[in-house]
Specification:
Layout: H1 2-22, H2 26-31, H3 44-55, H4 57-67, H5 78-93, E1 94-95, H6 99-113, H7 119-141, E2 151-152
Parallel strand pairs: 1-2
Helix pairs in contact: 1-3, 1-5, 3-5, 4-5, 5-6, 5-7, 6-7
């Protein structure tokens, strides 16, 4: 399952990035088959990451902006911003995925696709601060659990 989720995250990143570049809605990219890397269906986990990121983009962007020191969203390389958006959504809302897994997967995406030489360090730093912030918030509110409350990580 690990490899399937890794591939699902890669596909989600590529589709989200294509949406950002073309301005087309994610659903339209999927429906029109504008995304082609491997032949096959887009799995449920990929669709969930994409629809969730899209529907929670304001909250996700706000948290990224709060935790990305000296970087505005507008200044971030588009690939890095897309990676951060997907991983932040996963951290916030996907049950059953530890923060560390979401962060490590995002760092690997940044190594493979990142817009700058230090993209992986940047992504790791921002997501680490997000995880720390959420852990502090949980302690303050008395909540327990590792990740979000909206979706399950089942495929």
């Amino acid at each position: 399952m690990h490899q399937a989720r890794t591939l699902a995250r890669r596909k989600a990143l590529q589709i989200l990035y294509q949406s950002e570049i073309t301005g087309l809605p994610i659903d339209e990219i999927i429906d029109r088959c504008l995304y082609v890397e491997e032949v096959g269906l887009i799995c449920d986990f990929t669709r969930m990451l994409l629809s969730g990121t899209s529907s929670h983009i304001e909250e996700v962007d706000e948290l990224i902006a709060q935790t990305s020191e000296n970087w505005s969203l507008e200044r971030m390389p588009l690939v890095d911003k897309s990676i951060l958006r997907l991983a932040t959504y996963e951290i916030l809302y996907v049950d059953g995925v530890p923060y560390s897994v979401s962060i490590n997967e995002a760092v690997e995406l940044a190594k493979d696709f990142g817009g700058e030489d230090d993209s992986s360090r940047f992504v790791n730093g921002v997501l680490g601060r997000i995880a720390d912030y959420l852990e502090e918030t949980k302690v303050d509110s008395g909540a327990d659990g590792e990740s979000g409350t909206e979706e399950t990580a089942d495929e």
